[in-house]
Amino acid sequence: MWKCVLVLLVVSVSVNALKCVQCSTKDAPECMDPMNETDIKRNTVACASRQLCRKITFTENGKSHVNRDCAEIAKDDKVGCSWEIRVNSKIGSGWDCFCDEDVCNSAPAAAVSGLLLLLAAALTAAQ
Ligand SMILES: *[C@@H]1O[C@H](CO)[C@@H](O)[C@H](O)[C@H]1NC(C)=O
Fold first, then answer.
1. 0.85 cut: is pTM over it?
2. Positive or negative, the Cα torsion across 78, 119, 22, 52?
């Protein structure tokens, strides 16, 4: 597993690519929130062009899982989070989030940033 990560890191050293954390709690328990700096660095890869950072937080059979990866955004999707009833074509539910800054999918707060934006907008409007 670590060899694999190393190879990914070496292969992915390229200029100007977005960097994202790539891990899954299925095979890396440290992928669960909150991730520490060491684990974030160790699991960071450079994405292909047009890919954004994706974080999926979902519950399956009563267990919490987190997947972080580089992913191309579907054309009817946008940066931010959406609530998904089916995740990874299995029955489950959770947040599916895309963000476009380096290692932004390492943050526990990725799932609430959309809500915070709404709140900020509401507060601004209320003034
Ligand atoms: C980060 O977490 C991993 C396990 O998840 C642990 O082995 C490591 O010691 C931690 N590092 C720091 C700096 O806390």
1. no
2. positive
